[in-house]
Structures are given as C-alpha cells and as structure tokens.
Design a protein that fits this description.
2 domains; mainly beta; 47% strand; five-stranded antiparallel beta sheet; four-stranded antiparallel beta sheet; Jelly Rolls; 203 residues; 2 helices
Length: 203
C-alpha cells in the first residue's frame, strides 16, 4: 500500500471536524468515527475588543483629537471633550451573547468620565442602511479618583443570537469627559469584552 492510499483510507472511515482557533486559541482537530453520535457542550467564551480595535468616528473639536497609547488605552487630547469610538464585531454564527462590558480609568481628582458616555452593540442587515441596537445602552460614569480600571456592563441583550448570514455586527462607545482635566491621560478608555455561549464539539 503506497502513501497515497494510507492517507485516503482514514478519510473514508472518519468524519473530520475542524474547530476554529477562535474557540480554543489554537487549531484543533476532532475525529469522530462514522456512525458515532457527536457530543456537544455549551461553553462560555470571550471576544476581546482592545482599544486598538476601535476607530474614532466623532469628536467634539477639530483640534488635536485623541491619543492611543501603545494600543493599550485611549485618552483625549486638549481641548477635546468626547470621542465616538466604533469597532467591528465578528462572533461565531449561532453564538449567544450573554454580557457586554467596557473598561475605563479615572485617576483625576477634578474631572470625571461623563454620565452620558453610552456603550452598546449593534447589528445591521446586509440589505439595509440602518443599524439597530442588540444590547441595552449603558453609561460609564465615574467619580473621585482611583488608580484602577473600572468595569461597566449590561446583561440585557435584545437580540442575543448571532446570525452572520443576515447581519453585520459592531460596537459603539462614546467616551466623554466632564471638563478639561489637568492631565488628560488620567481619564482613559481601555476597550471592551463580550461574553458569549457557543455549542462546541467535544471528544
């Protein structure tokens, strides 16, 4: 038997299922013999949106705008007071969104991140020009000062199941501050994270 036949024979006997690296962090192959039932399990997974995934699409002023620091966090530049930030979201088809969380930092004793700083996820039909929210909008108000990242989130998901055959998906954050701080870098946006459930094949 030559090498070619050795490679063809297993393919005739087995069903090979590839699980995308987005689920496990590395490509994985699960081999299921024909005639066997496929076992699945629901896993909670996470889709991270670092600040480098966001593009500013709105500013309060045409002067110097924003500052991405090593792709890790974002702060405004004087005299800006707000920046609208947008990012694409690419979750697996049929996954179910459970939570949307965004992270900010306020270490300024005078100014804060505004109570009118909304964040939400949206979808748009491939055949439409209008977007609709798929999560409740939440704000990210801060007060006082603390050398720590703060999390704001929602678990109110209006359209939780992902349908990539019909929709594009994205995230929007309005990062707004209450005034001109002594140091703009004391008020930062650190990105967002989506928790979602997905049925995956298990050995």
């Amino acid at each position: 038997m030559n090498l070619k036949k050795k490679l063809v024979l297993p393919a005739a006997l087995c069903l090979v299922m590839l699980i995308n690296s987005v689920l496990y962090g590395a490509d994985k192959v699960v081999v299921v013999p024909l005639g066997s039932s496929v076992k699945t399990a629901t896993q909670t997974l996470y889709y991270n949106l670092p600040v480098s995934a966001f593009t500013p699409v709105l500013y309060s002023d045409t002067s110097p705008r924003g500052n991405f620091v090593s792709g890790d966090w974002f702060s405004l530049l004087s005299p800006q007071l707000l920046a609208g930030m947008a990012a694409p979201v690419q979750l697996p088809d049929n996954s179910v969104i459970k939570d949307f969380t965004c992270y900010v930092y306020d270490n300024d004793g005078t100014e804060s991140i505004s109570g009118n700083s909304p964040a939400y996820l949206w979808r748009r039909s491939v055949n439409d020009v209008n977007k609709e929210r798929i999560t409740d909008q939440f704000n990210m108000p801060t007060a006082g000062s603390a050398d720590a990242v703060q999390a704001f989130s929602t678990q109110s998901i209006l359209f939780p199941q992902i349908d990539t055959s019909d929709y594009f998906y994205g995230a929007y954050v309005l990062f707004k501050i209450t005034g001109n701080p002594a140091s703009y870098t004391n008020l930062r946006f650190y990105g967002c994270r989506i928790a979602y459930d997905l049925d995956v094949v298990v050995p």
